[in-house]
Design goal:
alpha+beta, Aminopeptidase, nine-stranded mixed beta sheet, 6 helices, 9 strands, globular, Lysine N-acyltransferase MbtK, transferase
Length: about 190
């Protein structure tokens, strides 16, 4: 079994787990999440099942990223892509550091929407990414129309840099430096590998 990252969020007082996506176990959930009304405009992956399953397999084979399922108290409810900026299309948009990481996310289970989960989840993932000692910056490029997520990124410690043109969207390039993150949040001893 692959290791996963677990934390008890100090605000939610609930267990947050990020585990690597298991194709056989998670395909159906992620497929259904990509067809949710709140997801379609920003991910554009509301494909037929056979096409989507092929897309997910290809994404899993991409060695510059790791796909995660986010769980709260054991319930799978979100999808995450943590990636190395080097090797990604985003590296052409700024002078990327060798260990800069990026993050994409969606809350798929609509029962978890609008209930204050997005910030604790994002904070936990970014804190997890900063566990890599050489990572000094985490990058996001949310769709420029997605004002709710841009607000959450700002609350987490990301700062807007500039609009960028990507193959599938106009994104807002945002940076969260380790220094800025650690000023806002205390993460000593926060994570356990289980």
């Amino acid at each position: 079994m692959k290791p996963k990252c677990m934390t008890i969020d100090p605000d939610l007082e609930r267990e947050i787990v990020f585990r690597e996506l298991d194709y056989d176990k998670d395909l159906t959930n992620v497929f259904l999440w990509m067809h949710q009304e709140h997801v379609i405009p920003y991910w554009q992956l509301n494909l037929p099942f056979v096409q989507f399953s092929s897309h997910l397999k290809q994404a899993l084979e991409d060695r510059h990223q790791t796909l995660y399922i986010g769980e709260i108290d054991g319930h799978p409810m979100s999808y995450w892509e943590a990636y190395w900026v080097k090797g990604d299309v985003v590296e052409r948009c700024y002078e990327a550091g060798s260990f800069d990481q990026g993050v994409h996310l969606l809350i798929g289970d609509s029962d978890y929407l609008g209930k204050g989960y997005a910030l604790p989840l994002l904070r936990a993932m970014v804190g997890f990414q900063f566990q890599h000692a050489k990572t000094k910056k985490v990058v996001a490029e949310p769709d420029i129309r997605n004002e709710k997520m841009i607000h959450i990124f700002k609350q987490c410690g990301f700062e807007p840099v500039k609009p960028i043109e990507l193959p599938d969207k106009t994104g807002l390039l945002m940076f969260c430096t380790r220094e800025n993150f650690e000023k806002r949040w205390s993460y000593d001893g926060y994570y356990q590998q289980v």
